[in-house]
Design goal:
alpha/beta; FAD/NAD(P)-binding domain; Enolase-like, domain 1; five-stranded parallel sheet; 13 helices; 25 strands; binds flavin-adenine dinucleotide; binds nicotinamide-adenine-dinucleotide
Length: 457
C-alpha cells in the first residue's frame, strides 16, 4: 500500500481524492462519518443553523415597524424540523465525499486506526481487525472540543456538537467562551428566541481580532439583547444554571437550561498510538515542515492536528499538497495568507496582516478604510454596519492585508486572498472595474482611499 490516511475530515478526504486522482494506491480510514468535524458537526451544520436563525429573525422583525414596509404574521419555528433540514444537507455532502473518493479510486474504510509503528497501522472495523502496512501514513485526526475540568460535558453542559442537534430552542442559554463558535452559535440562538448570555474570560470577544473589527459585532450583540460578560470566569454548574466570577470577584448564579462550552479545540494527537511514535511536537500539535512531513520518515500530518489556524480550508490545502508531493510534484507550503471568516452578525473576514501585525513586523504601511454606509448595495440591503480595510506597504503599495466586517462580506474572502496571493499593489486593484452596485466596490474604494484619492467618500 502506497498511502494510508488516518481521518476522513477535510484534510484526509481531500488528500484521498487528490492521491487517487494521481494514481496513488490510497486508503482512507475514518472511525465515524466521512467529512469529519467540518461536514458533520462543524462548518456546515453551524452555517445552516445560522441561516435558519437569520431567516426567522428577519420575519420576527417585520411586525409593522420595518422601514421596508413589510409586515408578517408572527412566525414560529419547529427546531426539530430545522435540524432535520440541516441533517439532510450534511447527508448530501458526506455522501458526496464518499462518492468522490470512490470515483478517484481511493478506498474508504470505516474503522478506528492505531499505529503499531510508523509503517504499520491496526484498523478495527465492525467486522474485523486489519493490519495495514503502508509506505506513507498521513495523520489527519483533527481536533475535539476542550472540556473544562470543573464543567464536564453531559446533561445541560454541552459542546457545539450537541448545540447543533437540539430539538428545541432553550429558554436561557449561557455560552462560555466568546470566540468563533460561542459567538456564531450564541447569536443564532438569540435570533431563534433564546435569552443568551456570553461569558468570556478575557477583556474582549474574538481576542485575535482588533477592536475596529469587533466593534460592529459588539453593537449587534447588544441590539440582539445578548448579555456579554467580559473578564468573567465560569466556576461550576449550579442547580439552576452556571456560577460565574466577575472581574471584581462577585459570584453570580446565571440561570440556564443549557450551558454551551466553547473555549477552544484541542488536537487529537494523544490517541491512535500517536504518542508511541515520539514525533517532534509543538505542545499538543504535531510539528511539520513545509511538505507536511513529521519528524518520522514516511509519516505526514495535516489539518487541525498540526496547529493554528484550525480551519477547514487550511486542512484541505495541506491535504492536496501532500498528495501532489507524494506523486513526485514539487510542492511546498508557500501560502502568503490563509483567509479566515467569522460568521457572526455582521461577518468578519481577515486575510494577511492587520495594521498592528504589520507594525510589529517593522513594516511601514499605509491603510485605507471604506465604510458600508457609503456603499449603495449595502444601503439597499440594510447592511451598512461595517467596512473594508486595506493594509499596504508605504514604499510600493504592495497589499499585505485585507480585513472587513459586514453582512455577506464572507463572499469577499476570495477577492481578498486573490489580491494578496497574487501580490497585487493598490494600483492593481484600483485599475480593475468592480461591478456596481456590489459590496466588492468597497475593496476598490478602500484601495483608492489608501492612495489618497477616494471617489465616493
Ligand atoms: P476533522 O474535520 O476533525 O477530521 C478528523 C477526522 O479524523 C474525524 O472525522 C475523526 O473521526 C477521524 N479520526 C480521528 N482519529 C481517528 C482514528 N484513530 N481512526 C480513524 N479516524 C479517526 N472551519 C472553517 O474553516 N470554517 C468554518 O466555518 C468552521 N466552522 C466550524 C464550526 C464548528 C462548530 C466547529 C466545531 C468547527 C468549525 N470549523 C470551521 C473548523 C473545521 O471544522 C476544522 O478546521 C476542520 O474540520 C479540520 O479538518 P481536519 O481534517 O483536520 O479534522
Ligand atoms: P476560540 O479559540 O475561537 O475561542 C475560545 C474563547 O474562549 C476565547 O475567547 C477564550 O478567551 C475563551 N475562554 C477560554 N477559556 C475560558 C474560560 N474558562 N471561561 C470563559 N472563556 C474562556 O475557540 P472556539 O470558539 O471553541 O473555536 C475553536 C476553533 O474552531 C477556532 O479557533 C477556529 O479555528 C475553529 N472555528 C472556525 C470557525 C470559522 O472559521 N468560522 C467557526 C467555528 C470554529
Amino acid at each position: 500500500m502506497r498511502l494510508l490516511i488516518i481521518g476522513g475530515g477535510p484534510g484526509g478526504y481531500v488528500c484521498g481524492i487528490r492521491a487517487g486522482q494521481l494514481g496513488i494506491d490510497t486508503v482512507v480510514v475514518e472511525q465515524a462519518k466521512a467529512g469529519g468535524t467540518c461536514l458533520n458537526v462543524g462548518c456546515i451544520p453551524s452555517k445552516a443553523l445560522i441561516h435558519a436563525a437569520d431567516e426567522f429573525h428577519k420575519l420576527s422583525g417585520y411586525d409593522g415597524r420595518s422601514a421596508l414596509g413589510i409586515t408578517a404574521a408572527s412566525p414560529s419555528i419547529d427546531l426539530s424540523r430545522t435540524i432535520a433540514w440541516k441533517d439532510g444537507i450534511v447527508a448530501r455532502l458526506t455522501g458526496g465525499v464518499q462518492g468522490l473518493l470512490k470515483k478517484a479510486g481511493a478506498r474508504l474504510i470505516t474503522g478506528q486506526a492505531e499505529f503499531l509503528d510508523g509503517k504499520t497501522v491496526q484498523v478495527t472495523t465492525d467486522a474485523a481487525v486489519l493490519r495495514i502496512v503502508a509506505e506513507n501514513v498521513i495523520i489527519a485526526t483533527g481536533s475535539e472540543p476542550v472540556e473544562l475540568p470543573f464543567l464536564p460535558f453531559g446533561g445541560k453542559v454541552i459542546s457545539s456538537t450537541e448545540a447543533l442537534a437540539l430539538d428545541a430552542v432553550p429558554e436561557r442559554l449561557v455560552v462560555v467562551g466568546g470566540g468563533y463558535i460561542g459567538l456564531e452559535i450564541g447569536t443564532a440562538f438569540a435570533k431563534l428566541g433564546a435569552a443568551v448570555t456570553i461569558v468570556e474570560a478575557t477583556s474582549k470577544i474574538l481576542p485575535q481580532y482588533d477592536s475596529a473589527l469587533t466593534r460592529p459585532v459588539m453593537a449587534s450583540l447588544e441590539a440582539l439583547g445578548i448579555k456579554l460578560m467580559l473578564d468573567t470566569k465560569a466556576k461550576a454548574a449550579s442547580d439552576t444554571g452556571l456560577m460565574v466570577e466577575t472581574a471584581d470577584g462577585e459570584i453570580i448564579d446565571l440561570p440556564a437550561e443549557r450551558i454551551l462550552v466553547t473555549v477552544g479545540r484541542r488536537p487529537r494527537s494523544q490517541g491512535a498510538g500517536i504518542p508511541g511514535l515520539s514525533l517532534d511536537m509543538d505542545g499538543h500539535f504535531i510539528r511539520i515542515d513545509e511538505n507536511c512531513r513529521t519528524s518520522m520518515r514516511g509519516v505526514f500530518a495535516i489539518g487541525d492536528v498540526t496547529g493554528e489556524p484550525m480551519l477547514a480550508h487550511r486542512a484541505m490545502a495541506q491535504g492536496e499538497l501532500v498528495a501532489e508531493f507524494l506523486s513526485g510534484k514539487k510542492r511546498v507550503w508557500d501560502k502568503i495568507c490563509i483567509p479566515a471568516v467569522c460568521f457572526t452578525d455582521p461577518e468578519i473576514v481577515t486575510c494577511g496582516l492587520s495594521p498592528d501585525e504589520a507594525k510589529s513586523a517593522g513594516i511601514e504601511t499605509t491603510t485605507g478604510q471604506f465604510p458600508f454606509t457609503a456603499n449603495g448595495r449595502a444601503m439597499s440591503m440594510e447592511a451598512e454596519n461595517g467596512f473594508v480595510r486595506v493594509v499596504a506597504r508605504k514604499d510600493n503599495g504592495l497589499i499585505l492585508g485585507l480585513q472587513g466586517v459586514g453582512e455577506g462580506i464572507s463572499e469577499l474572502a476570495a477577492a481578498f486572498a486573490i489580491a494578496i496571493e497574487m501580490s497585487a499593489r493598490l494600483e492593481d486593484i484600483t485599475a480593475i472595474i468592480h461591478a456596481h452596485p456590489t459590496l466588492g466596490e468597497a475593496l476598490h474604494e478602500a484601495c483608492l482611499k489608501a492612495l489618497g484619492h477616494s471617489l465616493h467618500i
